[in-house]
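User: Please predict the structure of the protein below. I'd like the answer in structure-token form so I can feed it into my own downstream comparison script.

Assistant: Understood. Taking the following sequence of 435 residues as input:
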Amino acid sequence: MVGGLRDRGVVADKGLTEGSVSLVETELDALVEGLATRLGRSVVIGDRRFQLRAHSSAVDPFDGARTSSILERRVPPEVVEWVRRHGVEDAVAPMHVPANPGLDLHARVCIPIRTQDVLLGWLWLMDPEGTLSPEEIGMASSVAASAGQTMYRRQLHREMESARRHVLLRDLLTDSAELSQDAADALIDGNLFVGGTMVVAFVVTLSVAGNSHLMDPDRFGLDLALDAACRSLVHRRALHLVRPRHGLVVAAVQDESLTHRIQGFGERMLTEVRRTLGDGGTRDVRVGIGSVVPSLAEAARSYGRACEAVDVGQVVAGLGPVVAWNRLGVFRTLSRFPREEITEDVLHPALLRLASDRGEQVLLDTLEAYLDAGCDAAATADRLGLHRASVYSRLKRIEAVAQVDLRSGADRLALHLGLKLARLASLDWHQVART
């Protein structure tokens, strides 16, 4: 299955050990514990993605928002919206964030953590009664400055690791088997990905006008979302990369048969992307899931199939926003057909005759539903919300107009394939009828 434990650490590049990253976490923990002891208040440090990085032991008073953040390792979305509304992302000095009883959120003091004018996160102090003195806030600001230096070192480590990982991931997905094998070996030997497992690729696309490259805000949001999704997996079991037109994830798989877990991770990515972009589900976000392949060195094959799956999902209605290669059915074969060559010339003449009929769309829809249902008239009636007699009447008209015998397996096969090819190519039946 796809791994299921959240990872707190950062994987090391060559020359950077996991111990050094753990030391960063230890330093932050020591800073918040020391400040909490001196002030007698709960202290939390979070990064600019509103993910928890360190928290003190429980000190009264604390609220439900703090508890939820610690359990989930991230601030609840509704709390993020509340604090953003009060301008924490623009803060350059300590500020107060008011309480919100509806969110079980006490009032807090927010101290931005910045290094070289770069916002790295925030230090949060519980202050429900508004009794923190200027001296205490000053003490906390000094701790925030120390935390900034620690977080900055960690950020540099992350960027070093990320740059190396992205280069190797690009090499992994090339057409060269030798280069892919070298990249896989380097990822595993460099402790960037677990070895000895099957893998599966995921591709995430956003609706972009004119099929152009992603704009910087979308690239940044997609990178954040995929990073968050990968962090939900066990350590070293996922890699992600944002390419000019889409994002991709390569994840380790323990058991190919547990397809529901693979599908579930694809749906988690979809949710994460929509949440991060904050579009309320209005953007056409789609996830394609490739085939499971035996090793990391073969990830390019899974990636290619994930691209095909998401491509088919964009043009074939009914497949949903998360489309797996192994659930494409006949489209796995038809997707190999060059789209530009799918014209009325390759379709069964019977479909052209139906397209020229006045009620062509009703007849074409009925025919497709009938063939999809295995030529079961009762099932077709249920699917279309018709009486069975109406289905039989339409089928007789289809046979008459199209000049086919629906009892013929050869005719049914040619018609069914033609309908699916037309759907794959997004053919306009009205236009077909005029040609």
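That's the full token string. Residues 1-21 have pLDDT under 50 and may be disordered.
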